[in-house]
Amino acid sequence: MIFFVSGNDTDIGKTFVSSLLLKSLSKKYNKIAYIKPIESGVSQISQSDLSFVKKSSDFGKKVDFFQFILFKEPVAPFTASLIEKRSISYPEIVKNIKTLEKEYDLLVIEGAGGLRVPITKSKEIVDLIKSIKAIVILVISPFLGTLNHTFMSIETLKVRKISLEGVVINSYPSKPNISEVHNPIIINSRKIKILGVIPRMTNSFKKSKNIHLKSLFSPRFGGQFCQVDFIEKCQNKFEALLKKYAN
Question: CB under 8 Å to 52, separation ≥6 — which residues?
Fold first, then answer.
């Protein structure tokens, strides 16, 4: 099985969420591969997303790490390949992933940017997801604008008949405003699965060691998060905030 972690925008927290997912899933699976196929904006391997994930926890022998292509410029992979005059072999990326799929119980793949980011002149991240028949976990923010980005991303997946497992809301504030409370309610009303909610943190990777994992994700991902309970709390907060606006 392949889970592909994508986002409804860039810098949405895919790497941080991926590290937490790996921690939780490593309790359920014996042999996992984390793959960051392509990454831009990295001058040294130690600064890569893969290195951050690897350092975020002691996974022991349960998780192996793979990265295929690194670019220095913080731009889309296709643009970076033109700048550095290095071609990207899309078939080779697909082949490598398919080979690893046979060797592991689970692959967790983290994309670069959002779904429509170009890998080559003719291929985008969403094409890679389709080629490897992955199931998407979409990382989203709770903030103003997230509904537009989220629904467009999901529509992109639907058009291509790609499976969406659900969304993970990252960086959820301890004191959400009315928009941040209502957004999950609207998402829920569209019958979209909320797989988990990650609280807002600074120095996320350092503080992630102190997070109670079971509270973050749904049972399918080794946690105890309940979408029904979360939406009920949001609904109560929303009604309370509406009263304040009325006054």
Answer: 15, 19, 205
Q: Which of 109, 114, 136 is nearest to 125 (CA)?
A: 114
Predicted local confidence at residue 211, as pLDDT: 65
Beta bridge partners of 196: 168, 217
User: Which residues span the domain enclosing 74?
Assistant: 2-173
Residues in Cβ contact with 194 at an 8 Å cutoff, skipping those fewer than 6 apart: 166, 167, 168, 169, 184, 187, 188, 227, 230, 231
**Where in the sequence numbering do the catalytic residues fall?**
36
CATH code assigned at 159:
3.40.50.300
The answer to whether residue 218 sits within a structural domain is: no
pTM over 0.85: yes
C-alpha of 12 from chain center: 8
| Strands laid side by side in the 2-7 sheet | 63-70, 32-39, 106-114, 2-7, 135-140, 164-172, 194-199
125: nearest Cα among 83, 85, 146, 153? 153
Which residue numbers in the chain have pLDDT < 50?
206
The shares of helix, strand and coil residues in the chain, as percent rounded to the nearest 5, are 45, 20, 35
The predicted pLDDT at position 206 comes to 47
* pLDDT score of 28: 86
**How many other CB atoms are there within 10 angstroms of residue 67's CB atom?**
18
What integer pLDDT is reported at residue 60 of this predicted model? 77
- The CB-side HSE value for 55 (13 A sphere, CA atoms) comes to 12
